[in-house]
């Protein structure tokens, strides 16, 4: 019987696949430049920190900068990232199945499967929200109803016990449901399954090997995130030193230029290089789950 892919393979195989088709993956993830450009424009229009701190009157352009930054963070970036998730997953799957992928077809698949995958992702998100909030509700409701009305020692103890149990149950449920349903979007991407069926299929894939799958899902991504974080820290350090040397007498200008470069590196360049690796981990693990079911 075939074994589940190992953690080292989940690091090596995505890396080799990414490195071997670097230009193709960057041509896909490079679309993150679009929300990145909106971030840059928003920051150029954004009011300075002292105006925000002292609640000064803002110009129309400054209000537009704040609005554009919020819109990009809440809507444009998540939707673009989801489309790229679908496109990169389809491209990677085609490479693994046929030896090569088609970037244009992957982008077309991303558009075609965007809305079904969005529906699955929203339901997955709601499941996680329910896992966090649900167990906390009994203690919260009891506290609201009884505080100031029933403050006997036994009631205070009961409220405290319910809060602690709620926190523990919330943590357990969040880990459990994340582990069971994390592959639901990929089921929609690869099998064109309906939303509820995608969640059920993901749970069936994980059944009987929860911790093995969860560890394999998280550890390779943590490794890539740590390496990306180190590269980001080195880049930001060099950039900040360079900016300080170029404009030593203008602290406001240094702060503004530093913020722009921080956004450029953290929100644009790092995700462009890192997101394909993180998505490839999911693709390889999903294939292994299907092969060893």
Helix content: over 70%
The run of helices and strands is: HHHHHHHHHHHHH
Count of individual helical segments = 13
Q: What average pLDDT do the residues reach?
A: 90
Radius of gyration: 23 Å
Strand content: under 5%
Would you kindly provide a written description of the structure presented here, covering whatever features stand out?
The chain is mostly helical and 293 residues long. The protein has a domain of 198 residues. Helices cover 84% and strands 0% of the residues. Helix 1 packs across helix 12, helix 8 packs antiparallel against helix 9 and helix 10 crosses helix 11. 25% of the residues are buried.
List the helices and strands and how they pair.
Elements: H1 7-20, H2 22-29, H3 33-45, H4 49-53, H5 60-98, H6 103-112, H7 114-133, H8 137-146, H9 153-181, H10 184-191, H11 195-206, H12 210-246, H13 251-291
Entry keywords:
mainly alpha; 13 helices
Write a brief caption for the model:
This protein has 293 residues and is an all-alpha fold. Helices cover 84% and strands 0% of the residues. The protein has a domain at 7-122 and 210-291.
């Amino acid at each position: 019987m075939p074994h589940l892919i190992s953690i080292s393979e989940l690091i090596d195989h995505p890396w080799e696949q990414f490195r071997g088709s670097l230009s193709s993956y960057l041509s896909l993830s490079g679309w993150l430049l679009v929300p990145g450009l909106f971030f840059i424009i928003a920051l150029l229009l954004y009011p300075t920190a002292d105006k925000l701190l002292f609640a000064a009157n803002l110009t129309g352009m400054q209000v537009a900068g704040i609005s554009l930054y919020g819109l990009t963070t809440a809507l444009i970036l998540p939707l673009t990232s989801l489309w790229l998730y679908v496109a990169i997953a389809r491209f990677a799957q085609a490479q693994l199945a046929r030896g090569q992928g088609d970037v244009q077809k992957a982008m077309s698949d991303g558009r075609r499967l965007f809305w079904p995958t969005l529906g699955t992702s929203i339901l997955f998100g709601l499941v996680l929200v329910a896992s966090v909030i649900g167990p906390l509700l009994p203690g919260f409701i009891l506290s609201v109803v009884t505080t100031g009305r029933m403050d006997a020692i036994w009631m205070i103890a009961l409220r405290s016990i319910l809060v602690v149990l709620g926190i523990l149950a919330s943590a357990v449920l969040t880990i459990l449901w994340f582990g069971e349903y994390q592959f639901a979007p990929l089921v929609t991407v690869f099998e064109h399954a309906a939303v509820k069926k995608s969640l059920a299929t993901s749970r069936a894939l994980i059944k009987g090997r929860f911790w093995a799958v969860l560890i394999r899902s998280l550890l390779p991504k943590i490794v890539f995130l740590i390496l990306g974080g180190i590269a980001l820290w080195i880049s930001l350090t060099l950039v900040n030193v360079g900016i300080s040397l170029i404009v030593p007498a203008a602290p406001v200008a240094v702060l503004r230029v530093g913020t722009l470069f921080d956004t450029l590196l953290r929100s644009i360049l790092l995700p462009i290089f890192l997101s394909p690796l993180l998505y490839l981990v999911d693709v390889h693990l999903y294939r292994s789950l299907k092969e060893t079911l």
